[in-house]
Structure formats: structure tokens, C-alpha cells
């Protein structure tokens, strides 16, 4: 039997690259890792640049959420472990500068890919670009990471919600991810809008469909580096920590 691993000990000295840190799940994860795995070395957070706002100002915006108040009171020096890298999941090569791309590939050991659009009514082209093509760009970055120990892709337990029983295994999508990515690039809005209901059936919306498609894409990288697919179900307000009832949006 393999020896048990203490989570905090495992993360000690590790460098992480995180997408989607400004989303609900991303905020929760960053706060939890800083508080309970305080010996983590560094976290690089991919954030879209805002005109007239420095990286420090973008980080300050994130840390102004009440979820970080407990850390501010107990150990504010931990925030020094956070570093913003300017980029965008929708841009070529994630919009990373050559310097930042090299930095991540040289230093990161764990990648958490949390960025996604969770709108159920998103037009198929936009959902594919964000959820599937965006993930492909992060996977391509991961291929060049020298000491990658884990690629964690945050999916959803509703990616195959049409199934009566959903097990902890991979379910191939009915379409090849590369074929769908190609189609949304050349089809015009009228044609794609006409075909969209047929393409996504039997799934109820483009969110579930593209999440299933993306799991298929991620599985194609099996053997290149260690991969975890996490499938949260309905995400609700915090039960106890870091403060009871905390939630940053209503859906």
C-alpha cells in the first residue's frame, strides 16, 4: 500500500499556476491553499489585464473580497506568495508574454485549470471557445512545463446529466473535440444557431455539452503528464470556513 500523503506537506515548497482565480471556485481554492497549505512556495494567477490597472491593483481587487478577511487578520504576509500573470484564456497562447510563459514552464509543478463560462444559455461558438479551446491552450502550456506533477481540470458532475447513473470514469463525447472546434471557426452564426440544438442533444445546454467535450479533449493528453478531472456538483455558499454563508454571486 502506498504511504499516506499529508496534503499540507505535499504542497510545501510547490509552485502553482491557476486559471479562473477570480471565479467562485478559484477564490475558494486560493484562500484554502494559502490558509491550510501555508508553506506553498508561490501561486501564479492568470488574470485578464485591465487598461490602466497594474498587476498589483488587479490582485488587490481579488483580495478585497470578504473571503480573504480571515487571512488578512491572521497572516497577511501569505499574500506575498500570490503573483498575477497577465493573460486571457481566449487569446492565442493564453495571451502570455514570452517571459511569463517561460517562467511558468520553468517553475510550476501543479496546474489548476478552473477558468470556464458557467452560463447555461451561452451561444455554442462562445462556449466552445471558452470552455474547450481555452482548455486546449492550457494543456498546450502544460506540455512544456518541465516538472509538472499534476494537471487538475475542474469539470462538472453535470457534464453528462442525461445519464441515469454517472460514475467516476471517462465518458467519450459523441463528437470529436477537434471537429467541433474546427466547425465553430468556419460556420456563420445563422448556420451554427440552426444546428446548435441538434449538435448538443441529448444534453440540455451548451455548458453541459462543452464540459463533456472538454473532458474528452483532456483525456487525449493521458500519458503526457498526470491528469485529474474534478467534477463538483451544485456549488453553494460556504458552510463553516473561511466564514459561514459566504458566497460571491447568485445564479
Largest beta sheet: what is the strand line-up? 3-2-1-4-5-6
Number of domains: 1
N→C terminal distance: 43 Å
* Proportion of strand residues: 5-15%
Inertia-based shape: globular
Low-confidence stretches: none
Provide the structure class: alpha/beta
- Radius of gyration, in Å, reads 19 Å
Query: What is the element string, with H for helices and E for strands?
Result: HEHEHHEHEHEHHHE
CATH class: Alpha Beta
Number of helices: 9
What do you see in this structure?
The chain has 251 residues and is an alpha/beta fold. The radius of gyration is 19 Å and the shape is globular. Helix 6 crosses helix 7 and helix 6 (124-143) packs parallel to helix 9 (206-219). The protein has a six-stranded parallel beta sheet with strand order 3-2-1-4-5-6. The chain has a single domain (7-230), classed as NAD(P)-binding Rossmann-like Domain (Rossmann fold), CATH 3.40.50.720. The protein contains nine helices and six strands. Its main location: membrane. InterPro entries: FAR, FAR_NAD-bd, NAD(P)-bd_dom_sf. Keywords: Lipid biosynthesis, Lipid metabolism, Membrane, NADP, Oxidoreductase, Transmembrane, Transmembrane helix.
Essential attributes:
251 residues; oxidoreductase; alcohol-forming very long-chain fatty acyl-CoA reductase activity; globular; lipid metabolism; 6-stranded parallel sheet; 6 strands; 39% helix; Rossmann fold; lipid biosynthesis; NADP; alpha/beta; 9 helices
Amino acid at each position: 500500500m502506498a504511504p499516506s500523503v499529508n496534503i499540507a506537506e505535499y504542497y510545501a515548497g510547490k509552485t502553482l499556476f491557476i486559471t479562473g482565480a477570480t471565479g467562485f471556485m478559484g477564490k475558494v481554492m486560493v484562500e484554502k491553499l494559502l490558509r491550510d497549505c501555508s508553506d506553498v512556495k508561490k501561486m501564479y494567477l492568470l488574470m485578464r489585464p485591465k487598461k490602466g490597472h497594474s498587476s498589483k491593483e488587479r490582485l488587490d481587487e481579488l483580495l478585497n473580497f470578504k473571503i480573504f478577511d480571515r487571512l488578512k487578520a491572521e497572516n497577511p504576509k501569505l499574500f506575498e506568495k500570490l503573483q498575477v500573470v497577465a493573460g486571457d484564456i481566449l487569446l492565442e497562447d493564453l495571451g502570455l508574454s514570452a517571459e511569463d510563459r517561460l517562467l511558468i514552464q520553468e517553475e510550476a509543478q501543479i496546474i489548476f485549470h478552473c477558468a470556464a463560462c458557467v452560463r447555461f444559455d451561452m451561444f455554442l461558438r462562445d462556449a466552445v471557445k471558452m470552455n474547450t479551446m481555452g482548455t486546449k491552450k492550457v494543456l498546450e502550456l502544460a506540455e512544456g512545463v518541465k516538472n509538472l506533477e499534476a494537471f487538475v481540470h475542474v469539470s462538472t458532475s453535470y457534464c453528462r446529466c442525461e445519464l441515469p447513473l454517472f460514475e467516476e470514469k471517462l465518458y467519450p463525447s459523441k463528437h470529436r473535440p477537434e471537429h467541433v472546434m474546427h466547425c465553430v471557426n468556419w460556420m456563420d452564426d445563422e448556420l451554427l444557431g440552426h444546428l446548435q440544438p441538434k449538435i448538443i442533444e441529448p444534453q440540455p445546454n451548451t455548458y453541459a455539452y462543452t464540459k463533456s467535450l472538454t473532458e474528452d479533449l483532456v483525456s487525449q493528453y493521458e500519458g503526457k503528464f498526470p491528469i485529474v478531472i474534478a467534477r463538483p456538483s451544485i456549488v453553494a455558499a460556504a458552510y463553516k470556513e473561511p466564514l459561514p454563508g459566504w458566497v460571491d454571486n447568485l445564479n
